[in-house]
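Work Package 3 (structural annotation) set out to generate three-dimensional models for the target panel prioritized at the project kickoff. During this period the team completed the workflow that converts sequence records into discrete structure tokens, so that structures can be stored uniformly alongside our sequence database. As a representative example, we reproduce one entry of 277 residues exactly as it appears in the project archive.
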Amino acid sequence: MRATDFEDRIKVGNEEYVYTSLKKISELNKNMEKMPLSIRIMIESLARNLDGETVREDDLKNLLNWTSNMENDFEVPLTVSRVLMQDFTGVPAIVDLASMRDVFKKMGRDPEEIEPRVPVDLVIDHSVQVDYYGTTDSLKLNSEKEFQRNAERYRFLKWAQESMKNLRIVPPSTGIVHQVNLEYLATVVHTAKKDGKNHAYFDSLVGTDSHTTMINGLGVLGWGVGGIEAEAACNIPGAKGSGCEHSWKTEGRCDCHRYGSHTNRVIEKEQCCGQVC
């Protein structure tokens, strides 16, 4: 079973697009047409990204056998179309990517290997403070104050946008993140160039704003998640990784600082530094 087994083509204007056909996928399970739209969108993502490694046949079959009363004892290696961030949780994520680029440069590797695998939009809307109000120029004065307070952060974000192909920054005073997502960023149908072909697929996302799920009103599948989960959804390929299973027991109380310190010692002992763990 291959991803190309489910592909079909459609012509829009003068452009031809490749898409993953739900009709072809449903040949594996005729009941798929009765499943919720959200499940079918996830099935399309698995079929489109089926490569035998990141997404395996069993992953697709597990979701194809979905029922409303089944036990969710399996993981879904879903790749969303894009990631939405606001500056409060998004800036630390971009700092992580920049730090990883520094490490790659020191290792003699190309820093541009560190690049979000899916498009990332970062909306700056959490940095404004209300110093002026009740006047016609309140917005202008508050915006000027915002740029003064956050000049260093905004310079960094501008550098990041110019350095990373899959990162877009929505500047301050544009609107709140879920409004910008609804009115400007959502495409409903996402398109991308791959292997010289135009591909079309469902718009889907994870966002670091609790109102991200409002996008479902447009038929776009979206979740609100934390900063760490959103950063993981960027899904940077090519990094060597190791798994770390915690099976040791503690004597007495153990706070998160000791837990983290012990984990670091284990990673150093096993010479896993420089890998994704």
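The first strand starts at residue 7 and ends at 12.
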